[in-house]
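Can anyone check this?
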Amino acid sequence: MAGDSRARMIHSAVRLLRERGYSGMGFREVVKHSGAPRGSIYHHFPGGKAQLGVEAIGEFGTFVRDVIVAVAAANPGDPVGALHAFIEAWRQIVKAEDYRAGCPVVAVGIEEHEDAPQLMEAVVTAFDQWQTALAELLAAAGVPASRSGTMATTAIAAVEGAVIMSRARRDTKPLEEVAVELELGLRSALNPT
């Protein structure tokens, strides 16, 4: 049962990070959102808010990496289809959240954390996981090694930026436009002339 309340608190922290960022997430809100007993947060996260933030970023980072791996497995030999499925998943998430929630990794990454540098380390680790998974997908599909890493970085940066723009505009058009351009770039890398 203790693991359940801990997992609920991490899930709630991810949710609150997606909506408010690290500076807007407090233990009180996490306890309220998760329904966990107040004292349990200090038991599960003796390192305080920073520990909870690091674990929430880590869980979300792993989740997204697993999504990349899953869409690759569901689209074997079709990196364009995998990329499209990944972007479509983000489009659906942004719409389902009524443009109120984005990526918790970005939310933490754009804030300053001088008192908790481990937060930025967690952000870097999450982005590195995604970049590696996407680069491996592209390389396996035949994108030259000289381009697979940079294309993966470009795709992640473009999608994350499009999520932010979609939230601001309350419209998924930025994600749709990024999908078209990334797919064109990927097709070009797969079929150089």
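Reply from J.R.: I decoded it. The first helix runs from residue 2 to 20.
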